Amino acid sequence: xxxxxxxxxxxxxxxxxxxxxxxxxxxxxxxxxxxxxxxxxxxxxxxxxxxxxxxxxxxxxxxxxxxxxxxxxxxxxxxxxxxxxxxxxxxxxxxxxxxxxxxxxxxxxxxxxxxxxxxxxxxxxxxxxxxxxxxxxxxxxxxxxxxxxxxxxxxxxxxxxxxxxxxxxxxxxxxxxxxxxxxxxxxxxxxxxxxxxxxxxxxxxxxxxxxxxxxxxxxxxxxxxxxxxxxxxxxx
Length: 236
What we know:
The chain is an all-alpha fold. Helices cover 74% and strands 0% of the residues. It is globular, with a radius of gyration of 19 Å.
């Protein structure tokens, strides 16, 4: 497992699209935070707490994270990397989990890059204040990152089911856009708003608790289905 992770992180360093996605998240975050550019979404009295509330649960760019993860993993099927790893004696569960750990961490890194760059843009204009740094917001961020990991596990499931990079990218992007961007405009029932498809929108303890548990259960479910299907699949 350790050797698999080393290989995956090495590949991540050489993954050019990952740098493009990271640059995009940094730029778009800064443009959102800097009220001098484009429309000003924040009132004059806003502080970094207001910025955090408006960015931490933003799923607008979850589709880009999904595309990045699907491309990174899907290429291993087309290049026969996974087939070779199986021949070398690595278990299929370890192969799947190594991908999940790496793309899950990179997905969290992309979202954090968006938050940090938005904060920098905001502070350049209005000055720095520490109002966003509190225990409630820390739990909120952890919950959102767990929900993002659950979304990433859906991309892992799709990629390991299709085993083709183009289909994995298309289906992952479509699924995330539908669930995280389109449906949230029409579905307001509690079971949906507390799911991983709708990042936590406030720091109330009961909402964060349910959202966190829901995300963990969803992630375990998606990864379990992916593991069972991958164990039975023929990999060429």
